[in-house]
Amino acid sequence: MPKTKKISSSKNKPWRKTVQKAMKKAAETEARQRFGGAEPLFDYRWEHVTAVVTLALKLAEQTGADVEVVEAAAWLHDIRKEAGPKHPQEGAKFAHQILPKTDFPQEKIGHVARCIRAHMGLWRRKPLKDLEAQVLWDADKLAKIGLTSLFHFMPVTIMRGNGRTTQKLIDDARANNKWMTKTVASMHTAPAQKAAKKRLKRFNKLLNRLEAELAGDDLLNLPG
Ligand SMILES: [Fe+2]
Ligand SMILES: [Fe+2]
């Protein structure tokens, strides 16, 4: 009996695995470029995106946002980062290309793309109206502030070289305070507003403690 060729429908591709794989590939390409083609010591984009997914899922749970829309948008929001300021639009286009080939609910693809398109900017003058877009924006920005920002940005900053000193790194981190304050004020959802305030506080506390250690100020209050 002749063998029948197994026809697999591309529509059956599991969407989560598919978008994760696509994002991993994009992150690795970006990391290799950052390290001038050498084996990357740190994959900032992957660290950032996985943090955004975790935060977005928690926020979705707490705010009642559509979990599928939020998760797909979180995985794909920076997938076309190489497009610079146009990466939200390009990312939205990518979502329209990749998700129809998967088992993702087709009627939600437009919504995912709209969330990705709206995630730009470290702060906002006008708040976003759509709940899922708000959740993605908040999660993306939460992942850029607080202690996470120090640990995510430090390797990238050090890699730039130019005789970086610890004090210079602290100064740069302090300069970030300006936009972080605006970011905190731009958060949409109640849990993100609360967390953002705490993150900025911890960030400043850590920098103060680090400066105190470098200056030996912690030696002043030793007993006896
Ligand atoms: Fe982005
Ligand atoms: Fe991002």
Give a quick summary of the entry.
This protein has nine helices and no strands. With 224 residues, the chain is mainly α. Helix 3 (67-76) crosses helix 6 and helix 5 (109-117) packs across helix 6 (131-142).
Number of helices: 9
The bound ligands are:
fe (ii) ion
Separation, N- and C-terminal Cα atoms: 93 Å
**Alpha-beta classification:** mainly alpha
Q: The CATH topology, please?
A: Hypothetical protein af1432
* Low-pLDDT residue intervals, each spanning 5 or more residues: 4-8
List the helices and strands in order. HHHHHHHHH
Describe the main β-sheet briefly.
none
**What is the name of the CATH superfamily?**
Hypothetical protein af1432
CATH class category name: Mainly Alpha
CATH architecture assignment:
Orthogonal Bundle
Total number of distinct structural domains = 1
The pLDDT mean sits at: 90
Kindly estimate the percentage of residues that lie in beta strands according to DSSP: under 5%
Determine Rg (CA atoms, Å). 21 Å
Principal-axes geometry comes out as globular
Report helical residue fraction. Answer: 55-70%
What is the tally of beta strands?
A: 0
Structural description of this entry:
Helix content is 64%, strand content 0%. The chain is an all-alpha fold. It has a single domain, classed as Hypothetical protein af1432, CATH 1.10.3210.10. The N and C termini lie far apart (93 Å). Residues 77-78, 87, 119 line the site of one fe (ii) ion (FE2).
Attribute tags:
0% strand, binds fe (ii) ion, Hypothetical protein af1432, 224 residues, globular, single chain
